[in-house]
Design goal:
Radius of gyration of chain A: 22 Å
Structural class of chain A: alpha+beta
Distance between the termini of chain A: 47 Å
Largest interface: A-B, 64 and 62 residues
Order of helices and strands of chain A: EEEHEHEHHEEEHEEHEHHHEEEHEEH
Oligomer: homodimer
Number of helices of chain A: 11
Strand content of chain A: 25-35%
Helix content of chain A: 25-40%
């Protein structure tokens, strides 16, 4: 597998996209995009576990049922959530309008809205916007689409890989958004992956759901999850390679590429957490079970006190121990170690559940980097898991207390 | 039941206490206290659910087993947690020293340490301190004791009530500490209640454990829980009233007093959350079950985004809806209302899951008060629950990022 920099979703065979500004965002930034596959694609999706689901998600949960999707329309700046019956009608109108312009049955289109909750969709702006976005579909519109799905994000999030099936190249690329209300069990995030691989619906669903568990469901910015979270993959088979089969080596190659793409997008979301200054990676190793490792990694990456400590580049090993302790993981409470990973070595903070005599300055240096990697070694098994979060700083509070309004 | 202001634990018959500065805290503040009952007391306690438990708690879990306790020694400034085998030996030495000076068997004494984690107890300071604290025990030392258990708290937390059993007065009083790492399932808190009521061990345990569920386990400051959390009640029977019996009216009176004392102390802890400026009370009403109401109330009071919004006195009804949605509670997602309670009325924010046309200025006024009371009406049953939290502000981040070090 190769990572292709400077490539994005429209470099995948058969994928067209566009991203325009139709006026939902008041600052003139892009806010509407269409992603279109020339070939009907096998599709899999996961949705927020929040009981309150936005109108577009309720439509998608129906449309994805038969496993095939042709296009997707996404607006940012307005989540069309908590908008009641009118919200559901508006989502249907947007979907039908896009389907009409693309000459597709509405049930082959997905819809996503992200942004402010509780405000009616400005239909008088979106409907003409859809026509424009459809007319601008092109094989170089991927980055514009990636821009058009952002809300409070500070950067475009895309990743592209290439791998071989039958000796022929297959491409997979994804775009994502999300920076606050980010937590395990799906966060205020949206992720769209496209690939020209040829794969069955059953296999795509199996791989995608499993991969989401170890990527988007292992990140936390603030412990809140939203009404609009969704991740989706379209596989259009346009690479012309043979069908990926469960019994095949190609299966492992596809799964590895998918995990890489989802994990990289998840990390980009975690790193772009509102007000954050660094990415926090929590690796739990030598745990009794994968479940124990996951619980512990998520708990540490989600701890408000750990996040605050990371913001101040302060070695809050006591807070880390507390968050391990309340994680629900099973482990030997007297025999675990904690390290921070450096460039070529690891620096020990805790040995057998007690403070280790570490060098304050060296620790401070490692905690001041863009990426802080913690290792929690349970010394009690063979299993591991990784979770990602970010630090929580003064800017997070200011943004979410609306102090500048 | 009467609330007695200006009374504290040593106003309960048979209770002596002292609080001194022995030098654990570098700023000269009180850091060691003894609470002693002239009569052996029936006792009940609950401990942190954190898997990593501090040394003193492991001792207490043994000592409380037979249900009788005579005294308690508490130090602040050092939690004696994550201190390994030496920590356990030190806790035993402290306990044995206190027991010796009080002429009690060690198993009739409880011990608690609260403060910094991972630092060895300064035994050369504490051991002489114990002798001094024992010699200063008096029937007016309650407030000094209440001061000596504090860590980053900004205020002493005490509450006292009087009620009648057989027409005779019975008193109940509590002291508590806690302001960060506060979350359901016991937080970095310590609460001690004393009463001169006469009650069996079984009944005291039953009432206390149930009361803790609706008080200390319904508060959240930051979602973190610690290694040292503990709540304990001693009932020494010194009021001379007859034994409270399950079949009796006195049972209800005692239970009501206990719930009041625990709830008031829990609210004082939530209000004194690190860097907080206001108390947040979340009332869920007309829920399908008590469990649904509790889940929802805890979730809203624990949401980082809701806490940030409260800090900015901004009506973040969207964040409230999200935290209701991911709470795990069962409810009709299209039919719930949200209100803020005013002095004589309530102001509606959300009607049937959609934004209600509220007056921004009136809402801002209510959100700017010391106490913000939210009401979430599920309109779907007869059950209710209340949780408490506080806002999360810039000072919380600064304190926990150690920005001033």
């Amino acid at each position: 597998m190769k990572v292709l920099t400077n490539k994005t979703i429209t470099d995948v065979t058969g994928i067209l996209a566009s991203g325009i500004s139709c006026g939902i965002k008041k600052d003139g930034k892009k806010d509407l995009c269409i992603i279109y596959s020339r070939y009907k694609a096998v599709a899999a999706a996961v949705f927020t576990k929040n009981k309150v689901k936005a109108a577009p998600l309720l439509i998608n949960m129906e449309n994805i049922k038969d496993g095939y999707i042709h296009a997707m329309i996404v607006n940012s700046g307005n989540a069309n959530s908590c908008t009641g019956e009118d919200g559901r009608l508006n989502a249907t109108k947007v979907l039908e309008s896009a389907a009409k312009h693309l000459s597709l049955p509405p049930k082959e289109v997905l819809i996503q809205s992200t942004g402010a909750i509780g405000i009616p969709l400005p239909m008088e702006i979106i409907i003409p916007g859809i026509e424009k976005a459809c007319s601008e579909l092109s094989d170089h519109g991927g980055l514009a689409a990636a821009e058009a799905i952002l809300t409070t994000d500070t950067s475009v999030k895309t990743i592209t890989v290439e791998f071989e099936i039958d000796g022929k190249p297959v491409m997979m690329s994804g775009i994502a958004k999300g920076s606050t209300m980010i937590h395990p069990d799906m966060a205020t995030m949206f992720s769209l992956i496209v690939t020209d691989a040829s794969i069955s619906s059953d296999l795509l669903n199996k791989f995608f759901k499993s991969s989401v568990e170890s990527s988007y469901n292992m990140i936390s910015v603030d412990g809140d999850t939203s009404t609009n979270d969704m991740a989706v993959i379209l596989a259009n088979g346009a690479s012309g390679t043979s069908l990926i089969d469960n019994s095949d080596e190609s299966c492992k190659i596809f799964d590895a590429a998918l995990n890489y793409v989802n994990t990289e997008l998840a990390k980009k979301i975690a790193k772009d957490g509102e007000g954050s200054t660094k990415l926090l990676e929590v690796n739990v190793v030598n745990a009794r079970s994968v479940e124990d490792a996951k619980k512990c990694a998520k708990s540490v990456a989600s701890s408000t006190l750990v996040k605050c400590g990371m913001y101040g580049s302060y070695p809050v090993w006591q807070d880390i121990i507390c968050s391990i302790g309340y994680s629900g993981a099973n482990f030997d409470t007297a025999a675990f170690d904690i390290f921070i990973k450096g460039d070529n070595s690891k620096l020990q903070l805790v040995k057998d559940a007690c403070e280790y005599d570490f060098d304050d300055n060296k620790v401070k240096d490692l905690l001041s980097k863009d990426l802080v990697e913690l290792i929690i070694d349970f010394k009690d098994g063979q299993n591991f898991a990784t979770a990602w979060g970010c630090d929580m700083g003064v800017d997070y509070i200011k943004a979410n207390a609306y102090l500048n309004i």
